Description:
The structure holds 2 protein chains of 2 kinds. By secondary structure, chain A is an alpha/beta fold.
Amino acid sequence: MTGKCSNPECAAPISCHEGKEKHTECEFWMKSNSPQSKTKTAPKKEKKSDLPWTGDALTIDELPKVTYRNTPVIIGIIGNADAGKTTYLAMLFTLLLRGIKLKEFDFCGTKTINAWDELYQKLRVQQQGVTFPDPTPAQYIRLLHLAIRNQAKKLKDILISDASGEVFSIWSKNRNDENAENARWIYEHSNAFILFIDCDDLINRKALAKTDIVDMAQMLKHDLRNRPVIAVWSKSDKKEEVHPIIREKLQEELQELFENYKEIDISNFSSDDPDVLVHKNNITVLDWLLSRVFTMSKSEILFENDSTINDIFLNYKST
Amino acid sequence: MGTSILLIGKPHSSKTVFLSQFYSKLQKNKSKLKLYKSVDDLSPISGAREALASGEEPQTTPSEKSVKFYLPIQVAEKQVDLKCPEYGGEQVLSIVENRELNKEWTASLQESNSWILFIRLNNVNKPLDISDVTYSEQHHKNEKGPVSETEYKISDQSFFIELLQILLHAKGTDYHKVNDKPKLTIVLTCWDEMNTEEKPYNVLQSKLPLLLNFLESNWDENYLNIVGLSAQGFSLTTPENKEKYQIEGPEEFGYLVLPDGAQTNDITELIEQALL
């Protein structure tokens, strides 16, 4: 059963914040998982369809649906809970729908359009304002797909991971923790990373928040090889409120850690049209990573060699 | 086996008015084209023909009505069937919602190399999303945002993209290649409602940009056509307009906007546009 605790600090169902042995017995858990809330997540009608894709996000087991045609580029999104990882994905599709294009590539399809569209609808302006996506459940790992074509009209599959922040927090403390499976999978299989820095968290928890990010960055570094990392300062409309010392120190420390690296500010709130933080930078994140991934692949043959393809099939099919 | 052109569109995308007007033009010799035989069953368009002849807006086809319809057209030496595998359009919705194609659809898609997709842009929603600057302003002022339905429904661009992905899959075309696809003609219907001087391509680009990206990256430019259509010509809500229809006859009206922006009064030219 998936679900989340009403206490945003709590990692249940992985472990209960209140120390209860069974998280289902905790009052905070029950609050947000009472039977009536089930109507919201009522299972869809059992549909029989002959199509090889469902339009929903892909799980690891389902990756061969996409990987049969070429080795995909996997982009791992890494960051603490509530740092804006899922919202980033929602914003990305929102911008594509508005006609904003990737620099070097054209959109040519997706096997996960229902998942993208649902995220997009979250950012639609409703009467009560915008409801941001719910926190991603802890056991959850899903991949969103984009098929893109380069200028030579060659097709590339991109998969972007969406996993809960809790598993990355656990992973950043102990990468072998049994509850950090999803983080390990993303770390092992991604070709490039987006590291989220939550400006809000830096404003509120200051140095504590900074330490968390640096811990995560160090874990990201341990077997990074030359995979590119882009650090994304999310909620950057508030970046000015982050204490300058914290800001500068964090910037320095990250720069020392990574080589194939860039940082960028993003936000969901425009103050201008077009707005650099919203309309341009959200797309630039992907542009930069893709340009790095594809320059690398020419020299280092990271992709498109047979052993990787076989490996992906073997790995994905079991679990 | 003759050539066939498939006409695809959601409910209320103006298929009925188009077919009814198309038929009237052929019948009254207002077209270069002719029927190569008489139509077996005119009942799907008979209501619309009567309504138009008396200057009334046709009733919309009940969308649950699953009717096949086709017009057998002689184009120069060629016999071409303009086919509507299912007339109401409900099955088109179901292809995306239930992810199923029935045998009829699969067979039609496989034998046809010319697809016409009707899109009525005035029915397409353009809800505000958070990336609209206006939103932030409203948000800060704490004003009420625009009303939108709460029930989840796939957005229009995603709908059309998924529809085409499914149709291509049924056709068995290879995603990898750009050329190897049926010719697709996108028809922006009820053109008169939009009050625009722009070319159809530009209108599609401003209203459904991601769909256009999808089309352009998957279809070779020679296989992709974007036109505008006003099968009725104008709305029949005013007495003057009604009278024009009653006196001159519906076949005198309606126009097609070609890709270069030029207008032609012969809506049957759509067939030449759609053929390879």
